[in-house]
Amino acid sequence: MTAVNIPKLRVRPKKAQNLSQCAVEMSALATCWASASVDDKRCAETAKALTACMQKGRPAPAKRTNINHHLARLGKQVLGK
Fold first, then answer.
1. Number of domains within the chain
2. Alpha-carbon gap, residue 37 to 43, rounded angstroms
3. Does residue 32 lie within any of the structural domains?
4. Which of 14, 22, 29, 79 would bridge with 53, disulfide CB 3.0–4.6 Å?
5. Range of 39's domain?
6. With 70 as the cut, is the pLDDT of residue 6 above it?
7. Termini Cα distance of the chain
8. How far apart, in whole angstroms, are the C-alpha atoms of residue 18 and residue 14?
9. Amino acid 5: pLDDT
């Protein structure tokens, strides 16, 4: 009798790009500093926007799915392992 290679059941969600929630504000502030000086008063509004964004805090993490656990558990029953 020959061994049959049966692939494991697995669902993998697409990975989303993890951009910082304040990346736009930080980039705008760095651009302002590059075009003017760090102590320039024109960059104060951009700095306030970055500070406000960072004070909001992080959003709650997305709930992880447990589909792979159930597929592995049911796979043992279906595939007879």
1. 1
2. 9
3. yes
4. 22
5. 22-55
6. no
7. 16
8. 12
9. 65
